[in-house]
Amino acid sequence: MGASRRRAALLFLAPMLLTLALVAGWPLARTIWFGFTDASLTDLDGAAWIGLGNYLDWLPYGDGSGEWIGLLVDRQWWRAVWNTLVFTFVTVSVETALGLAIALVLNADFPMRGVVRAAVLVPWAIPTVVSAKMWAWMLNDQFGIINDLGMKLGLLSAPVAWVASPDTAMVAVMLVDIWKSTPFMALLILAGLQMIPRDIYEAARIDGVNPIMTFWRVTLPLAAPAILVAVIFRALDALRVFDIVYVLTPNNSETRTMSVFVQENLFQFDQFSYGSAASTLLFLVIAMITLAYIRAARLNLD
Amino acid sequence: MATIRKIAFWLLVALILLFTLFPFYYAVLTSLESGTALFTPNYLPETFDLSNYRQVLGRGAFPTNVLNSVLVAAATVAISLFLGLTASFALARVPFRGRKLLLLTVLSVSMFPQIAVLAGLFEVVRAFGLYNSLFSLIMSYLIFTLPFTVWVLTTFMRDLPVEIEEAAIVDGASPWIIVTRVFLPLMWPAMVTTGLLAFIQAWNEFIFALTFVSSSDTRTAPVAIAMISGTSAQETPWGAIMAASVVVTAPLIILVLIFQRRIAAGLTAGGVKG
After folding, report:
1. Taking every annotated instance into account, which residue ranges of this chain make up the domain ABC transmembrane type-1 (chain B) (predicted)?
2. Which residue in chain A has the smallest CA separation from B203?
3. CATH topology of domain B62-270
């Protein structure tokens, strides 16, 4: 059976591998290549190799002076990198804390637990574009319910233009992401909590350990691997955030993330090769952060 | 003490429900209002006015957009399940060199940022003459549905005992017969879970749909919603936007409520992205 079965296995694998090569491998290689050319949206075939010109180049003025141009000295790009990192750090931290709290509640035995667990899945299932629109309406400066509630409760003295004002635009974007992604976090952490054997809690209770100590000394260390996996997945996802920013705060340098920068350059500003170069850097940044994070986390775990 | 703790616990539960459900509740409430009612914030339903739904579903391209979303998501799910089932048989049941490396490669594709392939994929779409066609989306969505499907189905198939295919092998059944007659009937639970998750991901996708199709009757529903606008920024038709949002979201919420256990299990099994 060995040989014919292996032949069949190869035959079964081929379509899947060819598909992935076509939609992932080849396009990634082409994107990286475009980053080293002068390709434009209207003339992809005429792309010519220009080396590192999109990344860094010296532009002489002709009188001996000149300036550096390219992605590596582009303030807009570094602003987008910064925005993405801030967004990722804040949202993933808040989502982890809130997700852990919700997971602890869902891990307790109480009537209607199934209902609450289903409700928690609702924000996750709603399309991101719809979430962004729902919150854009709730955060509306004139008719939004958030301002209305804030004023009624005395938390706000005047209506805030959450989405439009530069100070709060990023807060609004983060709020939508936190609302949408916390449930995912909670479910992943809950899976980790459910792996902890119940007798450990029983033993702690009999020994008279108070619940807060039990949480810090038993629950948290034992759930740490599951929390870590959840954090990595969320961070990878947050680093490429696009939909929320694009829909909630279009054309806003306060919230422009790396993905938005890439998409705009590729398809709106007719800077196809420049966008491809940015896309390559984004890929590298994500790959490096992933590796560094996994390595650091593993060191802390042992 | 015990009662205080009980009250605190239920307050926490109420807070979680409010946090997760209020935005959608408010979208439904807004979608049923029009005229001046729309512009006075209220917390409980006051009017029941279906004119927003009539406007969104009655004219324009929105019904076509919803249909496009259904077609694209269904085709994506069907193709990923077919390719995933055959590939997972090879990966789970046939020992060969380089199997682990292959599985790791598949998993790493699922970590790919979609935006990193956007430029190259645009070229592929154009080369195949698929620009502005729904096929461009069905093809490109496989980048995130296929790796996840292969991963989950492989894990599931590996855990099935050897005995179930022994009889078929002794009878001289071909691998194709073994996959379709022996494994397929056993794989339904895993296929339903992965199929559902792939459907939801494809239904919600935005960046490829925004980039690869450009006319109003080939758009998918999320892009159509993102593009609803009034004649000026001051005249955003919030009622219509909320009605369209409810139309696009309601089927998903029903699916989630029916299959919540399976979805939760699938999410944690593969760590699929949100």
Report:
1. 66-259
2. A127
3. MetI-like fold (1.10.3720)
Q: Model pTM?
A: 0.90
Note whether B119 contacts A31, CB cutoff 8 Å: yes
- Condensed to tens digits (0 to 9), the pLDDT of residues A130-184 reads 999 999 999 988 888 999 889 988 888 888 888 888 889 999 999 999 999 998 8
Beta-carbon separation of B121 and A128 below 8 A: no
ipTM here: 0.90
Closest CB to A122: pick one of B20, B90, B146.
B20
Give CATH for domain A74-269.
Answer: 1.10.3720.10
Output the six-digit token pair for B132: 């502005």
3-state secondary structure A193-260: HHCCCHHHHHHHHHCCCCHHHHHHHHHHHHHHHHHHHHHHHHHHHHCCCCHHHHHHCCCCCCCCCHHH
Q: Where are the domains of chain B?
A: 62-270
Nearest CA to A271 among A7, A8, A41? A41
Q: Quick one: chain A helix, strand, coil %, rounded to 5? A: 70, 5, 25
Q: A283, B113: Cβ pair inside 8 Å?
A: yes
8 Å CB contact between B262 and A187: no
